[in-house]
Amino acid sequence: MIEFRCDNCRTEYPPDTLACPACGALVHSATLKQLAATADAAIANGNLAVARAAWTDMLPLLPSNTQQHTAILRRVADVTPQIDAGGVAPTREQKSIWSRVAGGAAATALLLVGKLKFLLLGLTKASTFVSMFAFFGVYWSVYGWPLALGLVVSIYIHEMGHVAMLRRLGIEAGAPLFIPGMGAFVLLKQHIKDPLIDAKIGLAGPVWGLGAAIAALAVYAVTGGRIWLAIAELTGFINLFNLIPVWQLDGSRGMHVLSRAQRWTLVAIIFIAIAMTEQRLLFLVGAVAVWRAFQNEAGPGDNRVLATFAALVLALAWLARGVG
């Protein structure tokens, strides 16, 4: 029988242990040092993608409740926008206007193909496909198959938005599971303590859901098919409901990182959206947001999360103005 002992204090531990239970020494310290050196060298050479890959490889080797794990998660979250922007932002000195247009179009096409491939990949999970089909069957009997199909696809895209962000941040999670009458969820395999990372994960679902609603609206504009307008409005309504900042809904995760001043700013934007769209669901979103703004606990604040939250409220309320 193979024994696993700490190199530091010789304490025996189970094979799946990440840190010695006696002295706290990291079991994979040698591998972690190599990966850290790889990331440092990549940063020095300006290769953020390699650095992110090294940091992502470090996450499963670190206990999720440690400061090191949180710090590496933050590094991955910080470099991801820079990597995404670097692949689609050619400079004027490098390219003519026509090559910039062509490059932008090619990058957009590749991005869409990549997103489609990622969405189809999620359907290879038996648990997702079976629960999704059961969900579709229930709503088919109530609304008919076109609206039921549009509903299940839009919810699936919303959940895959969470999965995509989790993958970008190097966080393990299960495949989306559908529950008729309730919706769907993605089960995280570790607890997220950083409020900014949690907010990014939470709001990624409504962002992708907004994209699904806009796509359905675009099809309606081209074809004139009223079912597409209904799918767009219903998708907007469902994602707006998810922005209620309570319990485990996405809005609560987004609100958690906002400072007190930012929470009141969001409240003001919600009531502006009510005046603009007359969407009654916003009264519930706004009432809970006021309650959260009065609470003593407040986050460190993040302007990007505030801007994303506000844009989602305005856009989704506009899309859902025909529902409710």
Any descriptors?
324 residues, mainly alpha, 2 domains, 12 helices, 2 strands, 67% helix
Characterization of this structure:
This protein has 324 residues and is mainly α. The protein has 2 domains: 1-86, no CATH class; 123-322, no CATH class. It contains 12 helices and 2 strands, in the order ααααααββαααααα. It has helices at residues 29-44, 48-58, 67-86, 97-122, 126-143, 145-168, 195-223, 226-241, 250-256, 260-277, 281-294, 303-319; strands spanning 177-179, 183-185. It has a two-stranded antiparallel sheet. β1 (177-179) and β2 form a beta hairpin. The longest helix is centred in the middle third of the chain and has 29 residues, at 195-223. The radius of gyration is 22 Å and the shape is globular.
Summarize the structure.
The chain is mainly α and 324 residues long. Helices cover 67% and strands 2% of the residues.
Proportion of residues in β-strands: under 5%
The radius of gyration over CA amounts to 22 Å
Order of helices and strands: HHHHHHEEHHHHHH
Q: Which consecutive residue ranges, at least 5 long each, have pLDDT under 50? A: 87-114
Give the total of domains: 2
Lateral strand order in the biggest sheet? 1-2
Distance between the termini: 64 Å
Strand-pairing-aware structural class: mainly alpha
Biggest β-sheet strands, sense, barrel? 2 strands, antiparallel
| Portion in helices | 55-70%
State the shape.
globular
How many helices does DSSP assign? 12
The averaged pLDDT comes out at 81
Count of β-strands: 2
